[in-house]
Amino acid sequence: MIIYIHGFNSSSLSTKAQVLKQWLASRNRAQEWFSPDLPHRPAEAMATLIKLIESAQEPPKLVGSSLGGFYATHLVARFGLKAILVNPAVHPALLLRSLAGTTQQFWYGGGSYTFTQEHVDELEELDQLAPANPEKMLVMLENGDETLDWRDAAAYYRQSHQLIFQGGDHSFTRFQDVLELMDRF
C-alpha cells in the first residue's frame, strides 16, 4: 500500500497523486494506491490518515507533498513507516500564520473555507523540533521551488536521505522521472 498525502488545499486529484496512481496501474498495482481527500483541519486530516494506516493489512509507504510531507513526517515518528517527502513544508504553522482569517479556495472540486488560528494551533501541535526516524525518509527537493525555501527542508531533514535537483518548482517537475526510485526506497 502506498498512501499519497496531498498538500495544502489540494486533493487526490492533484497531478502528482494521479501520476502515481497511473504509474501503479500500468504495473498492475492499482490496488496499492490510496489518496484520501483530507479535511482542511490538520487534526481531522491526521485522524483520517491514522485510521487508514491502522486499518492497513501491512505497513504502508507514505508519499507526502508539501503540507503532505509535513503530515508524513509526523506519521513516520508515530508509526516508524518509510516516507518519500516531495518539497515538504517545514514548520507550516510559521509559514501559514499570516493566512489566519483569510478565505482559502480548494484547488480541485471547488469550495472554500476560512483558515483560522485554530488551524495554526493544530499545525503547531503536530510539529517536531527535529524529525524522528530520519533514516526512514527520502526527501526530494527542487531548488527552484517558488513556494517553499528548499534550504529549510535540506537543513531540517539533514539526517535523512536527500535528492536536491536544480531548477524545477513547487510542483516538483521531475516527479514522473523519480517514481521508480521512490518505489525502491
UniProtKB/TrEMBL annotation:
Domain of life, per lineage: Bacteria
A Pfam family matched in the record: UPF0227
Xref: InterPro entries: AB_hydrolase_fold (IPR029058), UPF0227/Esterase_YqiA (IPR008886)
Name of the protein in question: Esterase
